[in-house]
Write a structure and sequence with these properties.
The protein contains one helix and four strands, in the order βαβββ. Strands 1, 2, 3 and 4 form a four-stranded antiparallel β-sheet that branches. The chain is an alpha+beta fold and 66 residues long.
Length: 66
Amino acid sequence: MKTQPQSPLPVYRLITGPDDASFCHRVSEMLSAGYVLHGSPALTYDPEKKCVIAAQALVADAGQQK
């Protein structure tokens, strides 16, 4: 059985955290690294921290895979 070489990027990533500038920078870094957005972001409210929590799925761009 032949195995495929490992890709330098995980195929799927889920970024989560408070919906702030840091979250946006983390998603932007993943986009710069060759990922593309997968679906819409999800948002929820954390009443203990009193902030909105965001989640964004990203997948490795097939054109970036070697």
